[in-house]
Amino acid sequence: MNITDELLHHSDKDPHRASSSLSDIILGGQDGIVNVLGIILGIAAATGDVRVVIVAGLAATFAESISMAAVAYTSTLADADFYESEREREYRHIQEVPHIERDEIRQIYQSKGFSGNLLEQIVDTITANKDVWVAVMMAEEHQLTPVSRIGALRSALIVGISAIVGSLIPITPFFFLPIKTSMVVAIVITAVVLFIVGAYKARIYVGNPGKSGLEMAAIGTVSALVGYLVGVILRVPPD
């Protein structure tokens, strides 16, 4: 595979796709579990009625998942539109001011340590193919990678399903346990799940697993306390 094929291959296949999927899973799951935990604890503290808690929790679960999926879809489409507009602009620049764009390629690879004949060979090879030329400018100058519209649907689906799964975690105890016990169990389970997710995220990306896990667990705990306090303040008097 020559340098032209390698550059086109890199441009057509996003090496961070798996990482993006993990980010979508964490985004949807974390948002679902934290938001719904705060809601059901507030409802539980305010009403003391497990049926109301379950109904409110399920309503929030599905509303949350649809909302999160829609946000993921529209934001990904916006990224795709931005990429395409920048890509078209680079094609125009290559057509209108090729000498300037060629100098930019030279500067990019010169900053990477290339010089002399090797540098000129790289510049000649890249600028010999407009598609490769634009792909390099998009990746190196603008730090942008292609975003497909199919990817927007995929991202929305992952985020939406993850939000449902995450939301159901704190609700589940209320189906089987007394309401006060369920509140404690929901907080504990949520904190444990968030700690595991945070630690795993740090291992996959960069960071301290313990610190990342504690930070995410703290988010769930704070959400729980805020929701609970609101419920206590606005408690519905018993009939």
Question: What can you see in these coordinates?
Answer:
The chain has 239 residues and is an all-alpha fold. The protein has one domain (19-232). The protein is 85% helix and 0% strand. The chain contains ten helices and no strands. α1 (3-12) crosses α6. The longest helix has 47 residues, at 50-96. The radius of gyration is 25 Å and the shape is elongated. The protein starts with a helix and ends in a 6-residue tail after the last helix.
Q: What is the mean pLDDT?
A: 81
The run of helices and strands is HHHHHHHHHH
Strand content: under 5%
Count of β-strands? 0
State the major sheet. Answer: none
| Head-to-tail CA distance between termini | 77 Å
Estimate percent helicity: over 70%
Mass-distribution shape: elongated
Question: What is the gyration radius calculated from CA atoms?
Answer: 25 Å
Task: Estimate nothing, just give the exact number of structural domains.
Answer: 1
Annotation field: number of helices = 10
Q: Kindly name the structural category.
A: mainly alpha
Uncertain stretches = 1-16
Summarize the structure.
The protein has 239 residues and is mainly alpha-helical. It has helices at residues 3-12, 17-47, 50-96, 98-111, 116-127, 130-141, 149-171, 173-176, 179-204, 209-233.
Topology:
Elements: H1 3-12, H2 17-47, H3 50-96, H4 98-111, H5 116-127, H6 130-141, H7 149-171, H8 173-176, H9 179-204, H10 209-233
Helix pairs in contact: 1-6, 2-3, 2-7, 2-9, 2-10, 3-4, 3-6, 3-7, 4-5, 9-10
